[in-house]
Amino acid sequence: MVISMDLKSLSNEISKIVEQVKPSVVTVSTLVEHPLTIFGYEPVKGFGSGFVVSKGYIVTNAHVIRDAAKVTVSYVDGYASRAVVVAEDPTRDLALLETEDYGSPIKLGDSSKLKVGEIVLAVGSPLGLFQHTVTLGVVSATGRTIVGENIVLEDLIQTDAAINPGNSGGPLINLDGEAVGVTTAIIPFAQGIGFAIPINTVKRFIGMIEKYGRPLKAWIGVYVAPLNPTIASVYNIPVKEGLLVVKSIPGTPAYRRGIREGDVIIQANNVPVTRSSDLKEIIEDSIDKGFVNLLIQRGSNTYSLDVEIIVQPL
User: Catalytic: 81?
Assistant: First the structure.
């Protein structure tokens, strides 16, 4: 199939989108006091990006503001304002900042509707230059998991839009001018592999702060991966969809209830689960109840379990 496209019209449309979102995107400057070898502290500057989600509130990455004694946000017109950290969630690599009512809130999209191959733009302020840059690419994959030092980030958007140092915390934009993700990481020495946190994760992060006053970690003690027909065939699993348990942590509720590596979680609270975010969201929605019901497939047997939820402040 040959796809004809008016590239000039597309270019003009992208330029309009960039102009539209620029007032929403900020440079996040931090000052971290590093202890000296003998005595005292040495101030170390850091830079990242962020964007306005509502009047006076900005979202960025948790790693951008980690240990910061001072946070400043700067807008595209040069205006700068002090900011305070309202909440941070290292498990999601998200932070919410409160500052002056300045700039324009960005439109938030629906990351569950993203399709592989969809064009996206990464907007940010790399290298602390206080000037916005824009890179273009496509959604390379969704539902990715990356493992770093002391952190596991799940259900990420993978993109080949260039994400440079300092872009962290900036928005990933679709062609409707909506934020669909928060750029968070690049893979060193790799070409065209960057990651973004889905905007639906941001919405849940903010919703949890509104409900509980702070983000909470709610989990049962398992790490899971989406099951597909290929994996099911290789491991002779009788079901084709669900979440394959790749790690069950000893001592946690899931482990105590007998859930082990190789089990498949088919449903949670009678809802089919096919992405790790499905399970995570249902567990979070069940915090007040204190447990989640899981339908488990092990070999040819299916069984139902009520599993206690661990809730930890962050």
Answer: no
